[in-house]
């Protein structure tokens, strides 16, 4: 039983028999858009909480884990990332981390639902503080169509910062989209996709890796990291490289980048690359 | 709201404004002991769930993370661990991981509450499968008194596999106990303690490290890892060495040990050692 003296927001994840709940102080915003229903709550201990169609997207307190781990391993796996594309990512937290890299000349964020970004600007302003960076372009458009419109080999890193593989994001987990990403990436290009929980979603992760292999990517890896607000609290990003193998993190390059991070560092990156998908007998 | 078509077990963690819930099929066991109240539930998706005084201790599905990360970094940080002591650990999952190391000649588990082990034997038999190993000694006694009874420098590794720092385990987080551990360890000895969440319990972790420093340990580190069934899903172990610095994991020695693991490997170990306690500006 949830204690009755509080108001709780609960995300039940019935297909895996778990739920996470937060105590709520107030309901800050509610939008029904052409794509989905978005709610923002003020919590007692986790800052603000954004929910889309009943699924928790982020909280103020713990989103640094996801945004750092979706961004920095991918950018440090490319020798010199200049042009970066984000598909989804409407809360702008990934954009902020990308623009922390001085090497990046240009970053385009293609979010299908403008309301996600408008609510983030209001309720997660710290994630949007680089939205006015002259290197940033915010488009509100369909990621599937956008990727097809790009000239071949025009992007260095593509980050798929999507919702779960149901609803508007479903196509972002399909083989055709991954092939389009491959075509848009230059040699040595990196694609990274949020890939759900290493404990709960192994079949999905294997499917993402297969799509990447089938599209022609030459190496893939699934990087695990803690993410309290998502089911199981253990999440992943799956990364692929166009040609060669995924480079290990480079300590000197990381130090030169002078990033402020709460979770990411090169040893964390190496450890995440070593995430096992199931038991290993040696 | 938790969907009413299921029966849920909920652990509310009100001081941090979160709760985790599991869907339950049946209540397998209930014991009121001299120390605490123990319940075991059968869940729909997580195997069995053990709860002490309302706090979740473990589930069948995810305990491998905690048990591997409490054991293997500590044992691989000692050059040749022969005598290992576990304080707490009544579910025997840590004992099982310790005995997977062939170097270990003797492992004593000192659990205050025999009923925890009896319930584990019944409902978590896979964790108890090495309880009959001739190298294992299971004592049901007070860990605080036991550690004082040991000859100086008689133990190589001490693992504090305790409940939260309230109730019976409170003394295990105090400075005197840590000093007693220091005295019982030989040169190069390793102490490791479960140290709660790197997101929620930073002050507690700093307190543990201070106790270790004050006791005379020469190096400490807090290792983070995912642990879905505990608040925030992100947990930690804090380790200390008696003399010198904590050794990084050794790939060759790990390979020779031929462990079967689901999470632990040397790169994960290095990554865990690099866990940041808060933001780092470079």
Q: Which structural class best describes the helix and strand composition of chain A? A: alpha/beta
| Beta strand count of chain A | 12
Strand order of the largest sheet of chain A: 8-7-6-9-10-12-11
Question: If you consult CATH, what is the topology of the largest domain in chain A?
Answer: Rossmann fold
SSE succession of chain A: EEEEEHEHEHEHEHEHEEHH
State the name of the first-level CATH class of the largest domain in chain A. Answer: Alpha Beta
Protein chain pair with the most extensive contact, residues per chain: A-B, 57 and 57 residues
Through-space gap between termini of chain A:
43 Å
Number of helices of chain A: 8
Average pLDDT confidence of chain A is 97
Largest sheet of chain A: 7 strands, mixed
CATH architecture of the largest domain in chain A: 3-Layer(aba) Sandwich
Radius of gyration of chain A: 18 Å
What share of the residues of chain A lie within helices? 25-40%
Gross morphology of chain A: globular
So what's the oligomer here? homodimer
β-strand percent of chain A reads: 25-35%
Taken together, the total number of domains of chain A comes to 2
């Amino acid at each position: 039983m949830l204690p009755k003296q509080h108001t709780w927001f609960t995300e039940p994840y019935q297909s895996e028999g778990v739920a996470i709940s937060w105590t709520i102080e107030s309901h800050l915003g509610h939008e029904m858009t052409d794509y989905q229903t978005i709610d923002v709550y003020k919590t007692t201990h986790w800052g603000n909480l954004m929910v889309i169609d009943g699924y928790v997207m982020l909280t103020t307190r713990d989103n640094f884990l996801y945004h750092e781990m979706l961004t920095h391993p991918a950018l440090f796996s490319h020798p010199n990332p200049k042009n970066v594309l984000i598909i989804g990512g409407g809360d702008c937290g990934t954009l902020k981390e990308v623009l922390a890299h001085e090497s990046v000349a240009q970053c385009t964020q293609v979010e299908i639902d403008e309301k996600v970004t408008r609510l983030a600007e209001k309720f997660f302003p710290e994630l949007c503080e680089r939205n006015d960076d002259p290197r940033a372009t915010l488009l509100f458009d369909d990621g599937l169509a956008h990727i097809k419109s790009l000239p071949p080999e025009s992007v260095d890193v593509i980050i798929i910062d999507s919702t779960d593989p149901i609803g508007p994001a479903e196509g972002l987990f399909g083989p055709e989209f991954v092939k389009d990403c491959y075509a848009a990436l230059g040699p040595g290009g990196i694609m990274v996709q949020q890939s759900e929980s290493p404990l709960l979603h192994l079949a999905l992760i294997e499917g993402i890796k297969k799509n990447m292999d089938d599209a022609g990517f030459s190496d893939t890896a699934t990087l695990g990291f803690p993410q309290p607000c998502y089911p199981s609290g253990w999440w992943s990003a799956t990364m692929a490289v166009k040609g060669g193998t995924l480079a290990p993190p480079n300590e000197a390059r990381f130090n030169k980048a002078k990033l402020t991070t709460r979770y990411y560092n090169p040893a964390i990156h190496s450890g995440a690359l070593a995430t096992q998908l199931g038991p290993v007998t040696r």
